[in-house]
Amino acid sequence: MAVDNKQPIFPISVAAKLLDVHPRTLRIYEEEGLLKPARQGNKRFFSNDDIDWVRCLRKLIHEEGISIPGVKKLLDLTPCWQIKNCPEDIRSACTAFVDNTTPCWQQAKTYCAREPSQCESCEVFVKAMGSAEESADGAE
After folding, report:
1. Residue pair 42/51 in contact by the 8 Å Cβ criterion
2. pTM exceeds 0.90 for this model
3. Residues contacting 91, CB < 8 A, separation 6+
């Protein structure tokens, strides 16, 4: 059986242990808009993709010395179609490409025909995370 990396399965306490951080750290990332865990009632649940994303955030913040506002600015400045390398036919129908003044994840309800709740688990973020991690590894 294949594991779905987008499936939120880890409660915050387990996610924090996997990441070796305090649960408050995950709440801060959520408050800052860098992470959006799934919720069941008032409980947060994290996917493997969320765990990988937080690892990338931690690396950018603690190893590269980029502040949380700096990370947010980088995400604002990096167009999703560049990260994803969208072909022309997809870009021409993508609201984030047509109106590139606002990143896709800020175009609530209109970006790339996705539901707003899917934005934070979008392959754009996953690929950006991998690229940022590779860049950080290459700089060492």
Report:
1. no
2. no
3. 81, 97
- Alpha carbons 94 and 30: distance in angstroms, whole number: 27
Q: Could you tell me what percent of the chain has a pLDDT over 90?
A: 33
Q: Can you tell me the distance from the alpha carbon of 119 to that of 4, in angstroms, rounded to the nearest whole number?
A: 17
Distance (Å, rounded) from C-alpha 39 to C-alpha 101? 31
Q: Which residues pair with 46 in a beta bridge?
A: 10
Please check whether residue 52 is in contact with residue 126, taking contact to mean a CB–CB distance below 8 angstroms.
yes
Classify domain 10-139 by CATH architecture: Orthogonal Bundle (1.10)
Q: Look-up: residue for tokens 């990096």?
A: 78
Using the 8-state DSSP alphabet, how is residue 60 labeled? I
CA gap 98, 96 in Å, rounded = 6
Domain limits, the chain: 10-139
Q: What six digits make up the tokens of 116?
A: 């707003």
Helix/strand/coil for 39: strand
Q: Which residue has the higher pLDDT, 115 or 121?
A: 121
Under 8 Å between Cβ of 81 and 96:
yes
With 90 as the cut, is the pLDDT of residue 130 above it? Answer: no
